[in-house]
Specification:
CATH class of the largest domain: Alpha Beta
Strand order of the largest sheet: 9-8-10-12-14
Number of helices: 15
Low-confidence stretches: 175-197
Distance between the termini: 82 Å
Order of helices and strands: HEHEEHEEEEHHHHEHEEEHEHEEHEHHHH
Protein name: Formate hydrogenlyase subunit 7
CATH architecture of the largest domain: 3-Layer(aba) Sandwich
Helix content: 25-40%
Organism: Desulforamulus profundi
Oligomer: single chain
Mean pLDDT: 85
Strand content: 5-15%
Keywords: 4Fe-4S, Iron, Iron-sulfur, Lyase, Metal-binding
Number of strands: 15
Cofactor: [4Fe-4S] cluster
Largest sheet: 5 strands, parallel
InterPro entries: 4Fe4S_Fe-S-bd, 4Fe4S_Fe_S_CS, Complex_I_20kDa-like, NADH_UbQ_OxRdtase-like_20kDa, NADH_UQ_OxRdtase_20Kd_su
Radius of gyration: 27 Å
Shape: flat
Number of domains: 3
Length: about 450
């Protein structure tokens, strides 16, 4: 007993002060994707790269609108959208407080205008995307926005270009024609945002929140997940986060529960057991969809054995996105469910009024040098981290001549303590130095 007391005094307080004080997350923590509407060119690269189909692109050709949409309830925070975005319009922030009471608050949408094809007159592409491509051509020394011919070619839709190519092929290769069917089918997954909760039951739930604010029993149901969410739940009930100081306890029976916590996608074998647990819990009860799979089915949403998210079976009161949610995000979601904490995330809808031109990054640096720097940095440090290192080094190149850049880089490396990062910057600097010497030698 005395040894245990002595050890406790030596270690001190291990429990974090969150949610009463902000929680410091680790460097590189992947939280909510932050979207910059002004910087986006609606190219759709992020939607193609997203493995969970959390980002979708949809066209309304009657109104001439292209819609970009992200659903945080399906996001697995892999960072692929940030890696592939050409203008850097989407970045992952350290924000983990994403719990929401309605699915609409987990959505961010942006509408972009489309231009008409010069040949057929149909809407086909956002002007911001075309302007970005023309600006990139200008940087590469090719005819860009200043060239009337290049602009005319860019303002023709792919279907008309195919037809023109077929006509040219027919003239040059008579007697033979290969019919090709073009057109990509855009699949947009739309969630069911209808909430058909009974009015009387909703009133009872509000009363329940007032009564059990400091004495909450939580029952967890795994509906078929990978157990990643379970590991984070076990971490959140450890002494480090200590939910019992807030009156939150995990119980072994739904009969004793006030809150039902559903993890994983709703699989066919677990549909009936989940319904039994829901029916066994006395009313009023609070239902929480936990994790990306619980919110929407996650990366398994279109699997043959998956019904969808938790709300495909019964109504959900709070959604806690994450793959998996961190222990701090778990505490925050439970706090939102019990009205102990205020919901911070809200749904967003951006509409483009005027077309603004987005410039490619580092316009003052030659495209070949920029590509060499980015390619080497990504080869040494990975796609995302390498891009960040390359951007940092390219900022040095924008500040002056070879001597000024050399002084700036050496001063930065003296302060840097990570030897691996120093080695990467030195290799990038060698590429720049070799190119400058080659250019100087050619001029001489």
């Amino acid at each position: 007993m005395f040894k245990l007391l002595k050890k406790a005094l030596q270690v001190g307080e291990a429990t974090v002060e969150y949610p009463f004080k902000p929680l410091e997350v680790a460097p590189g923590f992947r939280g909510k994707p932050v979207y910059n509407f002004q910087q986006c060119i609606a190219c759709g690269a992020c939607a193609i790269a997203c493995p969970a189909n959390a980002i979708t692109m949809d066209y309304n050709l009657e109104k001439g609108i292209k819609s970009w949409k992200i659903f945080y309830g399906r996001c697995i925070f892999c960072g692929r959208c940030e890696e592939v975005c050409p203008p850097g319009a989407i970045t992952l922030s350290p924000d983990f407080e994403l719990a929401a009471t309605a699915k609409e608050d987990l959505c961010c949408q942006a509408d972009f205008q489309l231009i008409r094809c010069r040949s057929c007159g149909e809407f086909f592409a956002p002007p911001k995307e075309l302007e970005y491509i023309l600006a990139a051509l200008e940087q590469a020394g090719q005819p860009g926005s200043a060239s009337h011919i290049t602009r005319q070619i860019m303002e023709v839709c792919p279907q008309c270009k195919r037809r023109q190519g077929i006509k040219t092929a027919v003239k040059s290769l008579p007697g033979r024609l290969a019919n090709s069917r073009g057109g990509d089918k855009m699949i947009t997954v739309k969630g069911d945002f209808n909430d058909n909760r009974d009015t009387k039951l909703a009133e009872l739930k509000e009363k329940l929140k007032k009564v059990i604010k400091r004495s909450v029993n939580v029952y967890r149901v795994d509906c078929g997940g990978c157990n990643g969410c379970e590991i984070e739940i076990f971490a959140s009930i450890s002494p480090v986060y200590d939910p019992e100081r807030l009156g939150i306890k995990v119980v072994a029976s739904p009969r004793h529960a006030d809150v039902l916590l559903f993890t994983g996608p709703m699989t066919r074998p677990m549909r009936l057991p989940a319904l039994r647990a829901y029916q066994a819990t006395p009313d009023p009860k609070i239902v929480i969809a936990y994790g990306t799979c619980g919110c929407s089915g996650g990366i398994f949403h279109d699997a043959y054995s998956v019904w969808g998210g938790t709300d495909s079976i019964f109504p959900v009161d709070v959604y806690i996105p994450g793959c998996p949610p961190t222990p701090a995000a778990t505490l925050y979601g439970l706090g939102v469910a019990l009205d102990l904490l205020q919901q911070t995330i809200k749904g967003e809808h951006h509409v483009e009024d005027e077309v603004s031109r987005v410039q490619p990054g580092h316009p003052d640096i030659h495209p070949d040098l920029r590509k060499d720097i980015e390619r080497e940095a990504r080869r040494l440090s990975g796609y995302l981290h390498g891009k960040q290192i390359a951007d940092k080094y390219l900022q040095f190149l924008e500040e002056g001549d070879l001597q000024a850049v050399d002084r700036k880089v050496k001063g930065f490396l003296k302060k840097e303590k990570d030897p691996r990062l120093v080695e990467v910057y030195l290799k990038l600097h060698r590429i720049f130095t070799a190119r400058m010497e080659r250019v100087t030698g050619n001029v001489g």
